[in-house]
Amino acid sequence: MRNVNAAEAAGLLAQKDRILILTHRNPDGDTLGSGFALLHALQHLGKTARVVCNDAIPPKYDYMRKGITEQVFEASFVVAVDIADTKLLGAKLCEAYGGRVDLCIDHHLSNTKYADALFLEECAATCELIYRVIQALGVEITPEIADCIYTGLSTDTGCFRYSNVTPETLELAAEMLRKGADFDEINRVMFETKTKTYLKLEALVLDALELQFNGCCAMVVITQEMFRKSGSNESECDGIASLPRKIEGVEVGLTLREREDGSYKVSVRTYAPYDASRICAKLGGGGHARAAGCEIEAGALEAGKNRLLDAVRSELETP
Amino acid sequence: MRNVNAAEAAGLLAQKDRILILTHRNPDGDTLGSGFALLHALQHLGKTARVVCNDAIPPKYDYMRKGITEQVFEASFVVAVDIADTKLLGAKLCEAYGGRVDLCIDHHLSNTKYADALFLEECAATCELIYRVIQALGVEITPEIADCIYTGLSTDTGCFRYSNVTPETLELAAEMLRKGADFDEINRVMFETKTKTYLKLEALVLDALELQFNGCCAMVVITQEMFRKSGSNESECDGIASLPRKIEGVEVGLTLREREDGSYKVSVRTYAPYDASRICAKLGGGGHARAAGCEIEAGALEAGKNRLLDAVRSELETP
Questions:
Q1: What are the distances in angstroms from CA B199 to CA A118, A234, B233?
Q2: For residue A237, what is the domain's CATH number?
Q3: Residue of chain A whose Cα is closest to the Cα of B236
Q4: Chain A: residue nearest B192 by CA?
Q5: Predicted pLDDT at A203
Q6: Domain check: are A180 and A263 in the same one?
Q7: Are residues A184 and A254 in the same domain?
Q8: What is the side-by-side order of every strand in the sheet holding A103-106?
Q9: Which residues contact A80 (CB under 8 A, 6 or more apart)?
Q10: In this structure, are A33 and A170 located in the same domain?
Q11: Do A170 and B166 touch (CB under 8 A)?
């Protein structure tokens, strides 16, 4: 593995063709925004390229495909965007490409350095790095690219609310508005719209919320039964991980979402000085200081909750 | 009345002393951010000045007073910030100062031009105009001023979500981060923290939500009884006006809040092309294209709701 900068990453891409862009499973606005922004730029350069994802891409992101030509080909260069660990590719993609990632562009300091070349910098969104690669490729920022980059910036920062925002994040967002990003509609879809089914789910979740450690920690467990009862599903739940931390006095918010196979996806959100990635590391996960994730295996919910709460207790005691 | 620009507004302030800064009743982050930013700047210039408000200022805004000297004096120059109409001063302040406002700095195109000199430009937040006046006064932006300006920018845009955001709004926010605004803590207090009482209120409100016009319009009525039942109060309700519009398919959201005197404060939020200020104008109110307000008198709820829904119908039919 060698570290590369934006110009070197662009240099690698410029030399290659038949480029496969991998996004992470349970895809979010930053991995998709990064993938599709890069895809737009590469196709603009006349290259054959494609974005793939282990999981279905929710239809709300369809606008990112505007102007894209669907291309089928045997990959000769593999790029992973916003993916800290090959495990996050999902089973199918991990098996096919986990061992042959040529370039990774990522903003997670917890990156496991699985790629041949790694362009890694800590910033609010991987899209900030993708923007620099596209600039280095000499491709003009079209409104379509601006939409993708803006999406990554806004979704990874809770629409510019979280502590990961920097002046550069806001300035790049301003630049994407100037380049024609349809920010109003993107914000509406990503942040302002709640389905009736999601609102039902939120009510069930809030009802089952548990406070721990004198109200410093709030935990919600979202079961498959809650999804059934509300008619909601995982794809509507992007924002739910930030819910427990919103309660006054809560410093650490825990969201456990049951998957269909009975395992749990755990999202941890903290306020300074508490470190979410340190909590998740104790359960084999990782991420950022204020937002991180880990897993609980099927059938091990109670044991997993206890390990998680132990990790939270030790973080609250010695942050 | 004469229109002035930022330099002329600064010129007027530079000449005067014993400056009283009026903020609007039921104060929000933009009127207070504007008022306190200007107060910091004027006191920095050695002037005697003070911010007043008809209503109690919620304690969550206390950070804006950091470094301010409380000064009591007979006003010789009166400035109104973020106030479109003297009615919005509230009864006491309107009686005392409604007829003698020397300078108004405001971003509402519906401004009734009640002041001797008016610095008016449509932008996301009055704080954008205040920043330009402070620059014209030659005062350096301290972290305290940056906190105030950032608060106005973020609270009037739903933390940079709404369609009123421009590249300039985001760039000014970036500049405020560089000047030391404690944006993380401000966002936490303004957007991320919900009290348990507010969450209870939200559940009651969502339960009573009515959909109109095939789901294009959602209306919530927040009664004093709901405040009593939940233990919440008006000062916790800044964000509630955006709630009805969040439901999928809703283009016009109506929030009616009962005051202690039985009258209702009506907030209207729309998506393009529907014009909230046109709806409110039919009930004697005003505001912006996507966010506006009006009143319903005590005892006239049913008649007022009907007039409001008529205004919504005609807006939905011919936007």
A1: 44, 23, 12
A2: 3.10.310.30
A3: A248
A4: A246
A5: 79
A6: no
A7: no
A8: A2-3, A117-120, A103-106, A77-81, A19-22, A49-52
A9: A21, A22, A89, A97, A101, A103, A104, A105, A106, A115
A10: yes
A11: no
Asked whether residue B16 falls in the same domain as residue B64, the answer is: yes
Select from A162, A191, A220 the last residue of a domain: A191
Q: Which residues of chain A have pLDDT under 70?
A: none
User: Which residues have C-beta within 8 Å of that of residue A234, sequence separation ≥ 6?
Assistant: A26, A227, A257, A259
- Name the nearest CA neighbour of B93 among B2, B9, B13, B21: B21
How many Å from the N-terminal Cα to the C-terminal Cα in chain A? 32
Q: Which chain B residues are closer than 8 Å to A248 by Cβ?
A: 193-196
Domain's final residue, options A191, A215, A235:
A191
The reply to whether A270 and A207 lie within a common domain is yes
Share of chain B above pLDDT 90, in %: 83
Contact A159 B161 (CB under 8 A): yes
Residue A218 and residue A138 share a domain: no
CB pairs under 8 A between A and B: 93
Q: Do B246 and A192 touch (CB under 8 A)?
A: yes
CA B55/CA B89 separation, integer angstroms: 9
pTM for the whole structure? 0.84
> Which of B68, B73, B84 has the alpha carbon at shortest distance from B24?
B84
Is the separation of the CB atoms in A86 and A95 below 8 Å?
A: no
> What would the pLDDT profile of B194-244 be if each residue is shown by its tens digit?
887 888 888 788 878 889 999 999 999 999 999 999 999 887 887 788 889
Structure tokens at B108: 């509402």
pLDDT tens digit sequence for A175-205: 999 999 999 999 998 987 788 788 888 878 8
Which residues in A lie closer than 8 A to residue B167 (C-beta atoms)?
174-175, 177-178
Choose, out of B160, B252, B288, the residue to mutate when testing the contact with A (most A CBs < 10 Å). Answer: B160
CATH number for the domain harbouring residue A67: 3.90.1640.10
Q: How far is A317 from chain B (nearest CA, A)?
A: 22
Chain B nearest-CA distance from A178, in A, is 7
Task: Name the domain count of chain A.
Answer: 2
Which string of DSSP letters, residue by residue, matches B138-199? T----HHHHHHHHHHHHHTTTTTTSTT--HHHHHHHHHHHHTT--HHHHHIIIII-B-HHHH
Contact present, A43 and A64 (Cβ < 8 Å): no
Q: Look up the domain containing A247 and give its range.
A: 196-317
Mutate to test the interface with B, among A162, A164, A185, A187 (most CBs of B within 10 A): A187
ipTM summary value = 0.83
Mutate to test the interface with B, among A169, A170, A184, A185 (most CBs of B within 10 A): A170
| Sheet containing A291-296, strands listed edge to edge, beginning at the edge strand earlier in sequence | A210-212, A217-222, A252-258, A264-270, A291-296, A286-287
Closest Cα in chain A to B180: A167
CB contact under 8 A, A173 and B161: no
B162 and B225 housed in the same domain: no
Q: Are B60 and B189 in contact (CB under 8 A)?
A: yes
Q: Which residue in chain A is spatially nearest to B185 when comparing CA positions?
A: A163
Residues B135 and B207 in one domain: no
Between CA A60 and CA A68, with CA A66 as vertex, the angle to 5 degrees is 120
Distance from CA of A72 to the nearest CA of B (A): 35
